Automatic annotation (TrEMBL):
Protein name listed in UniProt: Serine/threonine protein kinase
Biased composition (Low complexity): 71-102
Record keywords, A-Z: Membrane, Transmembrane, Transmembrane helix
Residues spanning the membrane: 40-61
The species this protein was found in: Saccharothrix hoggarensis
Disordered: annotated segments: 70-125
Length: 256
C-alpha cells in the first residue's frame, strides 16, 4: 500500500454510500469511521426496552374485573358486571337456618394416677391431753375441839398427823354453837363434796365461822394451802364448864 500526498492510506476517510445516506459537506474530512453493526445493536436494545415498558404499563392499567378463562378468552366476573351495570349471572346464596346439633358434654376418666383425688384417710384420734393428776387424800380422821372448860384449842392439818394448837388452828372451837377457821364455806348437798367443788365454793363468799349443829358440813382451807371439809358429828352436853365439838375431817394433799 502507498500513501497519497496528505499521508493517507488508500481507503481511509472514504464514506460508504450503503451505511450513511446523508452527505457530509466539509472542506476536509479526516478520521471518520462508521460501524453499522454497533448502530443496529443499539436500535434493537431500545426496541426491547420500549416493548418491556409497554407490557408493564398494560399490566398496571388492566381491569381487575376481567379474568382469563380456561380457553384463553376473557371471562367477566360478577364484580365486573356490577361495575358495568350488568346483572350477575348467579343468584346470591340464601342463608340457611339449619340447626346445629348441640354438643353433649362428655366425661373422660383420666388414667393418670396423679389426676385422681387421693383416698380419704380417717382422721387420727386426738392425742389425749393428760388432765391434772388426781389429788390424794392427805389425812382423814376424827378430832374434837374443846372450849372454855379446859385448854381452848384447835388443830393444824398440814402435818402428817394433826397437831393441836392453843386457842388457834385451821379449825378451832368458837363457842358452843360454832367452829372457827380462816376460810370456811357451808356445803348444803347431802353427798360429801369433791375437792374441785370445795375449791369453787371457797372462790365465792367465805366466813370465819361455821355452825356447830350436828350434820353440818363445810369446806375449809389450811394455812399451808390444802383444801378439806369437815362434818359436825356431835357436841358435848350443855355444860358451860366443859364444852366440845366433834368433827369428821378429810384433807386433800396439795395440787401437783
Amino acid at each position: 500500500m502507498t500513501e497519497d500526498d496528505a499521508g493517507r492510506r488508500p481507503g481511509e476517510n472514504k464514506l460508504d454510500a450503503r451505511t450513511v445516506g446523508t452527505a457530509i459537506m466539509a472542506g476536509q474530512v479526516e478520521n471518520v469511521h462508521v460501524n453499522p453493526a454497533r448502530h443496529a445493536y443499539l436500535w434493537a436494545l431500545l426496541g426491547a426496552a420500549l416493548v418491556l415498558l409497554g407490557g408493564v404499563t398494560w399490566w398496571a392499567l388492566r381491569d381487575p374485573g376481567v379474568e382469563r378463562a380456561a380457553d384463553g378468552a376473557p371471562a367477566v366476573t360478577d364484580a365486573a358486571r356490577t361495575t358495568t351495570g350488568e346483572a350477575p349471572t348467579t343468584a346470591p346464596a340464601e342463608p340457611t337456618t339449619a340447626s346445629v346439633p348441640a354438643v353433649q358434654p362428655t366425661t373422660t376418666t383420666s388414667r393418670r394416677p396423679w389426676a385422681t383425688a387421693p383416698p380419704t384417710l380417717p382422721s387420727p384420734a386426738p392425742f389425749p391431753v393428760p388432765g391434772p393428776a388426781p389429788v390424794e387424800v392427805w389425812w382423814e380422821g376424827s378430832v374434837t375441839v374443846k372450849g372454855d372448860g379446859g385448854p381452848r384449842g384447835g388443830y393444824f392439818f398440814d402435818h402428817p398427823e394433826p397437831r393441836e394448837g392453843f386457842t388457834v388452828g385451821d379449825l378451832a372451837f368458837g363457842d358452843a354453837t360454832s367452829v372457827m377457821g380462816d376460810e370456811v364455806a357451808r356445803w348444803t348437798s347431802a353427798e360429801p363434796p369433791e375437792r374441785a367443788a370445795c375449791v369453787r365454793l371457797q372462790a365465792g363468799t367465805t366466813s370465819t365461822r361455821a355452825s356447830a349443829k350436828a350434820g353440818t358440813t363445810f369446806c375449809f382451807r389450811t394455812r399451808g394451802g390444802r383444801v378439806g371439809y369437815a362434818t359436825v358429828t356431835g357436841t358435848s352436853p350443855a355444860d358451860p364448864l366443859d364444852p366440845s365439838i366433834s368433827l369428821r375431817v378429810l384433807v386433800w394433799d396439795l395440787q401437783r
